[in-house]
Every structure is written in C-alpha cells, then in structure tokens.
Amino acid sequence: MKGLQAVDGGLGAMLTNSAAIDARKRSAEALRHWAGMMIVAVGFVTSFCCSTSVLVAQEGAAEAPAAATAELPAIPKGRLPAYFKDIVSEDQRDEIYKIQQQYADKIDALAAQIKSMQATRDSEIDAVLSAEQLAEVTKLRADASAKRKARAAELKSKDKPKAAAAAATTETAATAATSSKPALAPKK
Fold first, then answer.
1. Contact present, 134 and 42 (Cβ < 8 Å)
2. Where does this protein have compositionally biased stretches of type Basic and acidic residues (predicted)?
3. CB-based contact 84:96 (threshold 8 Å)
4. Cα 142 from chain centroid (whole Å)
C-alpha cells in the first residue's frame, strides 16, 4: 500500500508541476500579446503625430494652391474592371469611378489594419524565439532579401537587351515597309 501511495503522490506532484508550467506559459503569452499591442499603439501614436505636424506645416502652404484647384472640375479617376472599357458609356464610366471612390477609403483603412495585425502577429511570433534563434532568422531574412534584389537587378539588366532588340526589329520592319522593293510572296 505504501508503494501505491508513493506513486499516487508522484502523480499529484507531476500534475501540480504541469499546472504551474501551464500558468507560466499563459503568463508569457499574455506578456507577448501586451507587448505586441504596445508596439501597435506606439506605431499609431507616431503616425498620428507625424501626420499632424505635416498637416500643420502644410496648412499655410495649402491656402494658395487651394484657390487654383477650386477652378478645375474634379475628374473622377479609377480603373475600370476587366472587359468594361469597350462596353460602358461615358456616364456609366463616371458612375463606376464614383463607386470606386466611395469604397477606396474603407478599403485603404482595412488594408492598413491588416498590415498592422500582420506586424503584431510577426512580433509575437518573433518573441517566441530565443535571442540566438531570432538573430539567425533575421540573418536568413536579410540574405533572402538580398537574393531577391540581386535577381530583380539581373532580370532588369536582361530585359534591356531584349527591349533594344525589339526596337531594332520594329525599326527594321518599318524600314522594310517603306522600302521601294516589292514584298516577296510567301511560299506555298
């Protein structure tokens, strides 16, 4: 019976340790969540302060151009959905642009909110890592970014000769079209 009690006591101690570990994990998660929220809050305060100072600085400068722009009618801008260009009338086009303008601010606000939530999520995920792991991940991210930039530069440099060749081909075709020699008939 003593052996059974010893085993039972051991399980109770293990359960108590498990509960303590769970409590510590919950506490750490709450701390990471709070830290992430603080980062977001600091970001919002910083962006608000910056935008306010820019608005104050522009307030005096904006008065003169405001009179000049008041004379011009507002031209709605937007982008027509695919295949609409040749189908809609000018009035329908203007109405579509107005609808797009109505939703643009809401969509931009949601996109900013998504970006903020992703940044918070990423900071919480990074908080799970040890300092060494975070340093390694940061290095890997930087390496990947450098590879992407190098690849983009490589593709851009490859496109320049292709663009020059295409321009030369176009010039050759234009020259051939204006030449006095008759065009050869295709072989049958």
1. no
2. 151-162
3. yes
4. 18
pTM of the entire predicted model: 0.40
138 vs 144: CA distance, rounded Å? 10
**What tens digit of pLDDT does each residue of 162-186 get?**
666 666 665 555 555 555 555 555 5
**Cα angle: 25, vertex 27, 32; to 5 degrees:** 95
Render pLDDT for 87-146 as a digit per residue (tens, 0 to 9): 999 999 999 999 999 999 999 999 999 999 999 999 999 999 999 999 999 999 999 999
- Tokens 């450098």 correspond to 146
Q: How many CA atoms are closer than 13 Å to the CA of 143, on its beta-carbon side?
A: 6
Distance, CA of 138 to CA of 168 (rounded, Å): 46
Q: How many helices (H) and strands (E) does the chain have?
A: 3, 0
Distance CA 19, CA 1 (A): 27
Q: With contact defined as beta carbons under 8 Å apart, do 95 and 103 qualify?
A: no
Contact 39, 123 (CB under 8 A): yes
